[in-house]
Every structure is written in structure tokens, then in C-alpha cells.
Design brief:
Layout: H1 5-18, H2 22-29, H3 37-50, H4 53-65, H5 73-85, H6 89-99, H7 106-119, H8 123-136, H9 149-161, H10 165-172, E1 175-179, E2 199-202, E3 220-224, H11 225-230, H12 235-254, H13 258-263
Parallel strand pairs: 1-3
Antiparallel strand pairs: 2-3
Helix pairs in contact: 1-2, 1-3, 2-3, 3-4, 3-5, 5-6, 6-7, 7-8, 9-12
């Protein structure tokens, strides 16, 4: 009920989720009753955002058991994001296709459908969905911005050439791969590789291998071209996003954790 502490806590939690602050959203509802259906829904959305998909699925199931309506648009939106995180791409597409019929959610739904099409290897359908999203909401949806692969790789090379010698030496022992989008095969544990990830570091960091001369697999930095393009508002913004994403993953290669690279302004 509006005006009650429970209502205010839930309202604050939704605001935190809208800002991408999953931990803050969880703190906002921690003291609420576990019998409150919407609390479980908030927990599901927050854990999905954090990549904790097993806990998110349990929270979604609990919210439905407590009476949340499965066909409520907000419930479907959260379910669609969870299905994506579980790499159940075709199931997620079914959800986003339904949401695309709703005027308020259509731009968002077409944007997510574009990701689904890319993940299923259909960039033409992805581009069409992106154009539709932009036509429906030109002020709130990034216009389709793309670079040829060679130009994309050239931006990465420019960043590498601007690095100091020691870091360049470390990169010489690594591999940089530009791929359209992530593949489910890259995920070794549930939630570790979101389908909409912009980049990914896989391997042993320089900090972990310090002083250890034992042979290890070549570390790899992945840059996911289509996802980076989808997040960019202009050609200039795209080049900046390529740079930020590459340096973010380079930070992981050097041994910084997520907090460390975010502290350097590379979120």
C-alpha cells in the first residue's frame, strides 16, 4: 500500500534496479517479509543483474508460488532477462516477442530481440530489430552504429600502440579476439558470461602467474563487436566504447578484479 514502509522500500529497490545498482536493491528489501511476492521479484531481477542465475531462478519460482502473475509485463521482462542469462535464447525470444506487442515496452523488446538474433547467428534480423527499436523511440534507443571489422580492429591496434612497453610485452603473450557476440561455450559456470557482455578475459592473469614459469594456456581478451556497437550512440561513442572495453579486459589480464578496473574508470 502506498505510503507504508514496505511500499517505500520496494519503490526504492526498483529505482536502484533502474540505475543498475543490484546490491543496493537487495539491501533495500532485505528486511521485508519473505512472504511478500514482489520482494522475490526484486531479488530475482537483482541476482540476474549480478549473474547469479541459480539464485535468480529460485527467486522467480518463489515469486510465482506466492502469487505474482506470470503474464504481468514486468514479470515477463524480468523472466526474459533471466532466460537470456541462462542462455535459453529461443525461450527469451518468445518472451520479448510478446513484449514487443506492448507500446511502452516495444523499443526495449526489439533491442533485446536484436541481441537474441545475433546470438542465434542472424545479424540481418538483428539489424532489422535494431532499426525498429530506433524508429519507435529515437530519443531513448541508440541508433544502429557499426564499423567494418577492419576498422574495429584498427581502433584496438591504436590503443595497443599507445600502451607502455611493459604492458605491450604482456599483451604479446596473449591473444585478442574480436567476435560478434559471446558463445555459450565460453561459460564455464552459470552466469559468468552474459550474452550481452561487451568483453571477456579468459585465462591466468599476469598477477596470478607472477614467478611461476610453468606453461599455461594463452590468455585471451575477447571483444564482442555487435554488443559494443549496440551500446554506442554515435561513431565517436563507439570508438570510445571499444577503447574502454579493451582496457577493462586488459585490467583483468594484469590482475585487477572487477572493483579494481571500475576504480580506474573502466566500468
Amino acid at each position: 500500500m502506498p505510503g507504508t514502509p514496505e511500499f517505500e522500500a520496494l519503490l526504492g529497490a526498483w529505482d536502484q534496479l533502474a540505475e543498475g545498482e543490484a546490491d543496493s536493491a537487495l539491501r533495500a528489501v532485505v528486511d521485508l517479509s519473505d512472504e511478500l511476492p514482489v520482494k522475490s521479484l526484486v531479488v530475482c531481477a537483482a541476482l540476474t543483474m549480478k549473474g547469479e542465475v541459480t539464485g535468480a531462478r529460485a527467486a522467480m519460482d518463489r515469486s510465482l508460488d506466492l502469487g505474482v502473475e506470470e503474464d504481468d509485463p514486468e514479470v515477463e521482462r524480468i523472466e526474459g532477462e533471466l532466460l537470456l542469462s541462462e542462455w535459453r535464447i529461443e525461450d527469451a525470444m518468445d518472451v520479448f516477442t510478446r513484449l514487443a506487442q506492448m507500446e511502452e515496452l516495444a523499443p526495449y523488446a526489439y533491442d533485446r530481440l536484436a541481441l537474441c538474433h545475433d546470438l542465434l547467428g542472424d545479424p540481418g534480423a538483428a539489424d532489422e530489430a535494431l532499426r525498429t527499436a530506433y524508429e519507435l523511440a529515437p530519443e531513448g534507443t541508440p541508433p544502429p552504429v557499426q564499423l567494418p571489422v577492419r576498422e574495429f580492429q584498427a581502433v584496438v591496434l591504436e590503443v595497443i600502440e599507445g600502451l607502455e612497453g611493459a604492458i605491450e610485452e604482456i599483451l604479446n603473450k596473449s591473444e585478442v579476439i574480436v567476435a560478434p557476440v559471446p558463445a555459450a561455450e565460453l561459460e564455464r559456470e552459470p552466469g559468468t558470461v552474459p550474452p550481452d557482455a561487451l568483453g571477456l578475459f579468459m585465462g591466468i592473469s599476469e598477477l596470478q602467474r607472477a614467478g611461476d614459469e610453468a606453461p599455461v594456456p594463452t590468455p585471451v581478451i575477447y571483444l564482442f563487436k555487435r554488443n559494443i556497437e549496440r551500446e554506442s550512440m554515435s561513431a565517436r561513442d563507439l570508438r570510445e566504447q571499444i577503447t574502454i572495453t579493451f582496457l577493462h579486459e586488459l585490467g583483468h589480464l594484469l590482475g585487477f578484479d572487477e572493483e579494481g578496473v571500475e576504480g580506474m574508470g573502466l566500468a
